[in-house]
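Incident log, structure service

09:12 report received: a user says their structure output differs between two submissions of the same chain.
09:20 pulled the input from the user's history:
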Amino acid sequence: MGSPMTGDDYLRELIQNSYETDFAALVIAFETQTRFVWRNSPNVAQRLRALMSAGGKPMAILGANVVGNAVVYSVQPFAQYAEDTAIRRYLEVVGDQAMETFKRRWEVSRN
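09:34 re-ran on a clean worker, output below:
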């Protein structure tokens, strides 16, 4: 296994993923909450560094595409978490919840 990823490594992954999706975010896990760093947010690098400094762990990239009237998403864990079944289950729940919130906001903005 290589060196641990840095904040800049996570930002590169986020930027790369954002070319392939309509929306992309880093999933940042804390012991009792989950935060997101969306690619189109102001001060992306500063937000990521602040969350990491506060103990947040970047776990995955959440990507979403609007297809017709639907939002299709995927959650791609970073390599160090890809084989951990508990983390994959957690990310599945996080993805489902984030997309439900996103869909509600998207529908409101369309009306």
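09:41 both user submissions now match this output. Likely a transient worker issue. Closing.
09:42 reviewer note: The chain has one domain: 7-110. The chain is about 45% helix and 30% strand.
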